[in-house]
Every structure is written in C-alpha cells, then in structure tokens.
Amino acid sequence: MSQMAYTSNYFSQCSPMYYNSTDQQNYNKAVPSTSNNNNLQQFPNNNSEQFLTLPSQPGSMSLNWGSLNTDVDRKKIIPTSDKDRYLELNKLQQFDSQAWKGIRYKQVLQSCLATPGFTGLQVNDELCHFNKSKDYLASTELVSAGLSNQVLEQRQLLKTGLQTIVDWACANFQNLNPNNLFDKISDIFGPGSLCYKNSETTMQIICGKRSECIEVRRERILKEICNDNLRNTLKNVPTALTSYSVERLCSL
C-alpha cells in the first residue's frame, strides 16, 4: 500500500520539464528521494496539464499532457437529489414536524381501487386453509394496485390533454397566440384540473404509506431502548429527510 501511495505521490508532484533553446542544460529533473522516510524531494508546485513549453516562440507552443482519471462504478453511487424536488418532498412528507406521521392515505386509496386487477388479489379457495398467519404484504400489494391505476390514469389524462391542445390549436390556428395557448394549457393541466387532482391523490398515497413504514421502523428500534423516559422522548423527535436529526439527538 505504501509503495502505491509513493508512486501516486511521485507522479502527481513531478514538475513539467522545460526546454530553453538558449540553455540546453537548464532542466528541472524530478528525482525520487533515497531517504528511508519515504518522502519525496521538494518539487515546484505545478500540477498543470501542460507538459512541454517552448517559451522562445512568439506564440507559446504547448504540448498538452492531459489529466489522469479513474473509473467509477456509477451504479453504486446514489445521485444527488434535485434541490427543488427535495424541498417539495420535504413539504409533502411533512418532515421536520410532528405532522409527519399524520398523513392519511387509506381512505384516498379506496377511491383508486378497481376490480379486476387494481385491487388486492384473493387467495384461492383451495388454499385458504393454509393462509393462517398474518399476511404482511397484503397492504403493500393493495397500495401497489391502487398506484398502478393512478399511474395509468395519469398517462391517459396526459395523452388526452395534449391531444385536446393539438385539436384546439388546429381549429383556431388563425387566432393562436402565446396568451391563449398559455390559458388553454393552464386549464387542462393547472390547479383544479383532473391531471392535477390525480397527481395530488397519488402523492397522498405515496407519502402516507411511506410515513407508515417509517413509523413502524422507528417503533421497532425504540422498543430496544430499556429506559422508558428516553424512549418516549425519542418518539417526539421528528423524522428528517435523511435520518434522525443528529442535533436533536445530541441535545437529549
């Protein structure tokens, strides 16, 4: 490991070699140290990508040596959240407040269910007597069924809305201008529209179900705390967007 670190340090600190036509002996040579402390000799602090320079030329001619890069497995890196979307989620999920676990979704979910397909599947009569233990995935399947219906409906609303705009523009192309086009799009996709209400319903279900999952996970951890006072205090700590608030926990 120390040899690899030495090699990386050596190549990163090697200064470019300059050639001066008036003095061919004037070189800055990078020579590794022979001391036992594995330190490099002091070199000029020049990490420029410029490799060679002919300073005697009227227009300085430079040979670009390029920069070194390392490959990274991007599949293992979680990308940074979009700032606006991050703030919107924080508002919808009610994080950093006591209301985070009060987001209701089950009543809204009922309005999104439909049969066949968009509801929880029933166990066959031949297998019912084997279904004795609690089915912990039934509620998750029910949410997935309702959200599937909502996503497909949103897709249909988007298609219908865009087609309506195209048809309207073709029928009124002589009077088409930015103002009435803006009004038309606002009517179809803005607040109060079916598309807007569908998005609102979808996020109500998602945020409500996520809050329920977070609460169950928190309760499972807090049950391991023997001190009743500490456990009750931690229950009142709001959930943050990443985890428990470190500042709040440290102040307890």
Overview of the structural elements:
- The protein is mainly alpha-helical.
- The chain folds into two domains: 1-67, no CATH class; 82-122 and 134-250, no CATH class.
- The protein is 46% helix and 4% strand.
- It contains eight helices and two strands.
- It has helices spanning 2-13, 83-92, 106-110, 138-171, 178-189, 194-222, 228-235, 246-250, and strands spanning 50-54, 61-64.
- It has a two-stranded antiparallel ribbon with strand order 1-2.
- A hairpin with a 6-residue loop joins strand 1 and strand 2.
- Helix 4 runs antiparallel to helix 5 (178-189) and helix 4 packs antiparallel against helix 6.
- The longest helix has 34 residues, at 138-171.
- The chain is extended, with a radius of gyration of 32 Å.
Brief description of this entry?
With 252 residues, the chain is mainly α.
Break the fold down into its secondary structure elements and pairings.
Layout: H1 2-13, E1 50-54, E2 61-64, H2 83-92, H3 106-110, H4 138-171, H5 178-189, H6 194-222, H7 228-235, H8 246-250
Antiparallel strand pairs: 1-2
Helix pairs in contact: 4-5, 4-6
- What is the total tally of β strands? 2
- Taken together, the total number of domains comes to 2
Major sheet: size, sense and barrel closure?
A: 2 strands, antiparallel
Low-confidence stretches: 15-41, 244-252
What strand line-up does the widest sheet have? 1-2
Proportion of beta-strand residues: under 5%
Distance between the termini: 43 Å
What Rg is obtained from the alpha carbons, in whole angstroms? 32 Å
How many alpha or pi helices? Answer: 8
From the helix content, strand content and strand pairing, which structural class follows? Answer: mainly alpha
| H/E element sequence | HEEHHHHHHH
* Dominant shape: extended
Estimate the helix proportion, in percent. 40-55%
Question: What value does the average pLDDT take?
Answer: 79
